[in-house]
User: Fold this.
Amino acid sequence: MTEDTAPLARVDGPEGRRIACRFLPGAEPALVFLPGYMSDMAGGKAQAVLAWARGAGRACLLLDYSGCGESEGDFADGTLSRWRDEVVALIRAHAIGRAVVIGSSMGGWLMLLVAQALPGMVEALIGIAAAPDFTDWGYDAAQKAELAAGRPVFEDNPYGPEPTPTHPAFWADGQARRMLDGPIAFDGAVRLLHGQRDPDVPWELSLKLAAALRSADVQVHLIKDGDHRLSRPADIAILLDTLSALGAGVAEAP
Assistant:
């Protein structure tokens, strides 16, 4: 079982926050999976990546951001900068030297920020319905005015019974961390998977991200009937095929 080979642990992160994670030792580049907004490492895609890594003998790191899943903290305190710093801290705590970062939805924004924070260490990126800059394009003018005034915004949640909150600190930090306004300085391989029936993140955003990335090795895979989560068995098979193909193309350590 992957739970036996990658047991749940809690690692001291920035400012003493205990961050829950599972780490599977193995060959590098290690796979690092970044969940989406209000998601965690128990999701189907994260678990599929962990199982694939075990079969391939690759190192793998799963984690829950503070305020999410098994980690300590209050979700209302979460920001992209805080969660980026937690990811970086866990990568360093596990002495990962070379990584392929996989980001789902908001995790696809975070993967860009992590690559920016760890130049030369992140060798490749895989985005699954990547959602960079969603604090900008994902809210209407009235919602932005509420957030700018310091008031949270609540939206209907199609994936659970409770409304989805956006807190002012998260929104303000996101606006300061926008990536699509200029070139994104990353030169490694990038693979972007996106469903064309995604009701949350327009699939055209993956094309915009592909254009903004400096790398010449960028491919976009559109799934015509795919939704936002891309968690069906066929979708996960595409993700794992992408991992397999990308693994063959990532340079071996000298």
Remarks:
- Residues 2-143+178-249 form a domain with the Rossmann fold fold (CATH 3.40.50.1820).
- Residues 196 and 224 are 5 Å apart (CA to CA).
